[in-house]
């Protein structure tokens, strides 16, 4: 793959910042980014449409939503409840959140494709039980400027005087901590083995396998 | 961990290596792309000076934004035209086959793959669309991916994945009259929840599944993701092989059928396969299922009462309350009689020929209710053409349905087909999320194609079994 650009992939060991609570279970990707904002060929500019229909009424007047509140405008950590990001595979959802300013999400649980999409952007999705999350959301509400520190490798979150244990999926933790969450170059380096695999599979026709580089 | 399942076998056959993250690098046998989630991935390739590694294992179509009324170019909506042009450029530059509307092969990506024989047992299939699980109906391992993963697949022909557990869902017995595949999957999601399948792949088995045609199996696998499972599959059998024989690929290459059949047989789950979990459902007990809320897991039998939020598990109560408020339904009532404004027969879940035939048989000689806007959006141009030849278009139009061109349409409201204001829609699609069908106040009731037909005629959610004599799925 001569000429391919090397991409710098930062290690994500820690994320620190103030947080914003987004309460509710089963917040789906249609709520995170309504489909009508997906009629674009790049992800640029999606940030302003995050949670759009929850944030604005038909006349574009602001509704009550944490993303509209002045005190949460500098937040970089989102604290959510269960099955966050369920629904479609649209990467537009984490892209919109990231472009709004979110660097990490702490929640009770995440939909799988959503968590995978976050990982592909270097955004940790760490989990804790319902009680722990609700306590954290309450604290964030009372301390909108309060700093939260997520230690990805140690699987700990520190806020105020509290340090809580959280869970980071094994593969996600390794990928973030070792800086291999962008898998393109890593997998491209195995091109020879991939070709061999293609040749082994009975349904792959020879004509579909490109000549070795 | 599961052992000896189709999932284990297909995974092993496609595993290239274990990555430093602990994920496996899996070879991708078929990469389907469409206009909404792929342009950004092609952009990333250009930024990194990378090329498409396996263009001949990649296939494109246009479905999400394509207008279903006037399809003349340029499309009336600039954004839609731009997305289409971008896809045209990308596939042309990379040498990727494209089932565009001029070919007569265009349609929803999960309808056209199986039609053309691109979808086959024992393949790994990915697409930037969560309903890629549909293709599991053929015994493929198929799952939705995000755009960064599309970039990976385009650039390397592989995807990084963590292996999941396998839950066998055994559906015993025969379905009753008027009960369809859709009812089975809505019931599964109702019982196991929208996140019950997180961390699992679902294997659907049992008499009721085996009795289904490929289209019914696709409807079920399609909605695996609504239950949290990224993939679902049915072991391939004679029904699968009969379908494969009729597809373009095997019509053009009949010798390949005999060559590949041993592989297909070899990847079936072993009789003594070990599962991480098994759930059994009695098909004889099922009645038509409809949703009352705003997640696909909020479903009930047509004669069952809408649950009191307080009667649900603690973590489901708030969602239920908000859903009941949005839908304007009361606990204790049934959904029968819920007035609708729109009837939508379409989507990758239920817009194939048997779905249209079943609905047409029900509406033939009847009239869509005066207060209802009803539309049929075939899943593909081929479905559309065959349905027109069979006279289904005439039946629908005489009954007062609009007959449209193929696309995703009102399932997600990315083209002009959208709910307006607080309209209520009887929909054969897969998601009833708030805002899903294009209006944030819109109300979606998910149901089978037969139930959509009944609702269209009566102007309200109705029990299809009482409409007139019906045949089973």
TrEMBL record, chain A:
Q: Which GO terms describe its biological process?
A: L-leucine biosynthetic process
Question: Which SUPFAM superfamilies does the record cross-reference, listed alphabetically?
Answer: LeuD/IlvD-like
Q: Which UniProt keywords apply?
A: Amino-acid biosynthesis, Branched-chain amino acid biosynthesis, Leucine biosynthesis, Lyase
- Organism domain of life: Archaea
- Which Enzyme Commission numbers does its entry carry? 4.2.1.33
Describe the function of this protein.
Answer: Catalyzes the isomerization between 2-isopropylmalate and 3-isopropylmalate, via the formation of 2-isopropylmaleate.
- Per the similarity annotation, which family is this? Belongs to the LeuD family. LeuD type 2 subfamily.
Protein's name according to its UniProt entry? 3-isopropylmalate dehydratase
Q: Which organism is it from?
A: Natronorubrum texcoconense
The major lineage groups are:
Archaea, Methanobacteriati, Methanobacteriota, Stenosarchaea group, Halobacteria
UniProtKB/TrEMBL annotation, chain B:
InterPro entries recorded:
3-IsopropMal_deHydase_lsu, Acnase/IPM_dHydase_lsu_aba_1/3, Acoase/IPM_deHydtase_lsu_aba, Aconitase_4Fe-4S_BS, Aconitase_4Fe-4S_dom, IPM_dehydratase_rel_enz, IPMI_cat
Which of UniProt's keywords are assigned here?
4Fe-4S, Amino-acid biosynthesis, Branched-chain amino acid biosynthesis, Iron, Iron-sulfur, Leucine biosynthesis, Lyase, Metal-binding
Cofactor field: [4Fe-4S] cluster
Q: Does the keyword 4Fe-4S apply?
A: yes
The record's annotation in CDD domains points to:
IPMI
* Transmembrane segment boundaries: none
Q: How is the cofactor bound?
A: Binds 1 [4Fe-4S] cluster per subunit.
Instruction: State the Gene Ontology BP annotations.
Output: L-leucine biosynthetic process
- One Pfam annotation reads Aconitase
Reactions the enzyme catalyzes:
(2R,3S)-3-isopropylmalate = (2S)-2-isopropylmalate
- Protein's UniProt keywords contain Lyase: yes
Which sites bind [4Fe-4S] cluster?
348, 408, 411
Q: Where is this region: Disordered?
A: 292-311
Give its E.C. classification number: 4.2.1.33
Q: What Gene3D superfamilies would the database entry show?
A: Aconitase, domain 3
Domain Aconitase/3-isopropylmalate dehydratase large subunit alpha/beta/alpha per the UniProt entry, residue ranges: 8-459
Q: Which SUPFAM superfamilies match?
A: Aconitase iron-sulfur domain
Give the top-level enzyme category: lyase
Q: Tell me, what is one Gene Ontology molecular-function annotation carried by this entry?
A: 3-isopropylmalate dehydratase activity
Q: How does it assemble?
A: Heterodimer of LeuC and LeuD.
By its UniProt entry, which NCBIfam families does this protein fall under? leuC (TIGR00170), PRK05478.1 (NF004016), PRK12466.1 (NF009116)
Q: What does the sequence similarity comment in the record state about its family? A: Belongs to the aconitase/IPM isomerase family. LeuC type 1 subfamily.
Purpose: Catalyzes the isomerization between 2-isopropylmalate and 3-isopropylmalate, via the formation of 2-isopropylmaleate.
Name of the protein in question: 3-isopropylmalate dehydratase large subunit
Give the source species. Answer: Natronorubrum texcoconense
